[in-house]
Amino acid sequence: MSRKPIIAGNWKMNKTVKEAHEFVEAVKDKVPSPELVDSVIAAPFLALDRIVADAKGSDLKIAAENVHFENSGAYTGEVSPVMLEDLGVDYVVIGHSERRAYFAETDDTVNKKVLASLEHHLLPIFCVGESLDEREGGRWQAVIKNQVTKAFAGVPADQAPAVVVAYEPIWAIGTGKSASSDDANEVCHFIRETVAGLYGEATAEKVRIQYGGSVKPANIANFLAQSDIDGALVGGASLQPESFLALLDGAKA
Ligand SMILES: O=C(CO)COP(=O)(O)O
């Protein structure tokens, strides 16, 4: 079955509100038709209000890079799914390896965030990936299966296809060293089999799986040509308008 590609730029901790605004103004009327590809920018919380307004009426979708799982309350410094929904944010990146490594994100919090996001009509882009140690030690299947299974716990079958899974091997993030497209596809296929184990083949065929880790305009088409890779989650190469647009072009091809 053919799944629509989804390309998401993840800006991480980059860009002031002004810079974010200028970027969105530069690309919003140039992104491909949503019949061909879903185009998404994930930006820091501070920029979201401005760029959701900037992107309104265009085919560019906006994501948050994180969300808390409670609707409100005594959680100093956090942002709730109610707030993001109210702003008109479309997607939210959940469980990025940087959040797992530096901000004590766990499989349990990732799962709560997936459930809370779906409840508030935010589409989760939930991230999985193994470390170099886990890959070299032959443990990647166990690690990935555990991350996927825990993230989907409690997600009803009819909502599972709304979840985008991003496979980002930790050793390929920001290193310039991407996985080979065959290796990435092997893991993405394994992710799909894991989802099939939870919900059945028909549902698993609908779930979109991205690859992330040193994706660039020059290599994106190789990844997208693979059977189980339906898009990319891109850090560094999404920071410049020309490069982001080139990634979208590569996904269309
Ligand atoms: O972590 C990533 C996207 O979420 C990947 O980052 P790079 O594309 O900079 O390797």
TrEMBL record:
Enzyme class name: isomerase
Quaternary structure annotation from Swiss-Prot or TrEMBL: Homodimer.
EC id: 5.3.1.1
Pfam hit, one: TIM
Originating species: Sporolactobacillus shoreae
UniProt entry keywords in alphabetical sequence: Cytoplasm, Gluconeogenesis, Glycolysis, Isomerase
Listed GO biological process terms: gluconeogenesis; glyceraldehyde-3-phosphate biosynthetic process; glycerol catabolic process; glycolytic process
Segments crossing the lipid bilayer: none
Signal peptide: none
Family note: Belongs to the triosephosphate isomerase family.
GO cellular component: a single term: cytosol
Xref: PROSITE patterns: TIM_1, TIM_2
Reactions it catalyzes: D-glyceraldehyde 3-phosphate = dihydroxyacetone phosphate
Pathway(s) served: Carbohydrate degradation; glycolysis; D-glyceraldehyde 3-phosphate from glycerone phosphate: step 1/1; Carbohydrate biosynthesis; gluconeogenesis
Name used for this protein in its record: Triosephosphate isomerase
Gene Ontology molecular function: triose-phosphate isomerase activity
Positions annotated as active site in the UniProt record: H96 (electrophile), E168 (proton acceptor)
Residues binding substrate, per UniProt: N10, W11, K12, G174, S214, G235, G236
Localization (cell): Cytoplasm
Function: Involved in the gluconeogenesis. Catalyzes stereospecifically the conversion of dihydroxyacetone phosphate (DHAP) to D-glyceraldehyde-3-phosphate (G3P).
